[in-house]
Amino acid sequence: MARSASRTIALVVLVAVLLCGAAAAAGAWRYFHKNPQNPVVRLDEYVTMGWVAWDSSWYMRIAQEGYQYTPGEQSSVAFFPLYPLVIRAVETLGPNVYQAGVLITLLCGPLALLMFTRWAKLLTDDDTALKAGLLMALYPFTMYFYGAMYSDALFVLLVVSSFLLLEKGHLAPAVLVAAVATAARPVAPAVVLGLLVRRLEWKHARGEKWGVVDFMPVLSGLGFGCYMLYLWHQFGDPLAFVKVQGAAGWSQQPGWHTWLKVGWFERVVLNPTDKREAFRLAAHAFFTFLALALVWPTRKLLGWGYAVYVLAIVGLPAWSTKDFMGMGRYLLSSFPVFLTGALLLRQRPRVLQGALVVGAVSLLVLSWAFGADYYIS
């Protein structure tokens, strides 16, 4: 039984990778053949094409050309450096830039889910860990773990591994892994606070006194800090990645219009002229508030450290977004909520089964839509 959860999750993930890859390829085939003038390509190329869209082009440019920043315009400094650096490294082994990006996700996504299941088994029983793993593996936006050329899989793998090491008492390695993770996404405060509070809580639960070394998690923000130093040296502005969010097209500038989600209310509630867009934005908002609603149950079931982490990792992007777009994908980083969900649904098997079925179907639909170049997150 000790290995059954991990083996089951590995099998589920393998099937998900194959089916989602096929769905994304089918979407790419449809999109590619809208133009009869497009050249004939090999069948296997549709898989790569299916997983490369939207922000993938930014990572490609950074990997091949480095960073650029033009104040007031969309610029690549908005994207943190770890993922494109790894892409550049994998390129040296032979794959092209797009193949490298997809391969990294195909490696990191499944590993993140396996590490998550191992982490969950440290905090609960094998059966609940399995349910938590299934909830995360079949969460609709987990398709970003199964091939999409985005940084989410790499980031979540590192963060989950960091907390796993922390739970095992390996503080220094946990902080080191977390420091690397904060070079991948602009959510360092959540990682720092989560690790710090959990470490202090972990020591207190064992009746041990806190020492200076227990505050080592503050160093996990070094990856974030190094990127800011790079921006300062290269462009003279350590906050360029924040300021560029207000550029035309992104329009995520800080202010009451953004904080109060005026744009979301206009496009979803007051004047939903595009029903497809309204549904998409409503879905992202739904998952955001569901995750926030699980913060307090997470505190009760898993402790203050994970509650603080979830609140910060969800709250920071939710506060800064104008319309919740992308939040469904960002919530992959709030991995403790999947274990909280599994714990809450232990006595509600039908609800759990329903969630898994809906999630599995949604995974395939979103994979196809991503490949067909629909904007989903």
From TrEMBL:
The keyword Repeat does not apply. Keywords: Endoplasmic reticulum, Glycosyltransferase, GPI-anchor biosynthesis, Membrane, Signal, Transferase, Transmembrane, Transmembrane helix. Pathway: Glycolipid biosynthesis; glycosylphosphatidylinositol-anchor biosynthesis. It is found in: Endoplasmic reticulum membrane. It comes from the Bacteria. One of its GO terms (biological process) is GPI anchor biosynthetic process. This is Lipoprotein. PANTHER family: GPI MANNOSYLTRANSFERASE 2. Its main location: endoplasmic reticulum. GO terms for molecular function: alpha-1,6-mannosyltransferase activity; GPI mannosyltransferase activity. Residues 1-25 form the signal peptide. It holds the Pfam family Mannosyl_trans2. GO terms for cellular component: mannosyltransferase complex; membrane. It is a multi-pass membrane protein. The chain crosses the membrane at residues 97-116, 137-165, 171-198, 210-232, 278-296, 303-321, 327-345, 352-371. InterPro entries: PIG-V/Gpi18 (IPR007315). It comes from Myxococcus llanfairpwllgwyngyllgogerychwyrndrobwllllantysiliogogogochensis.
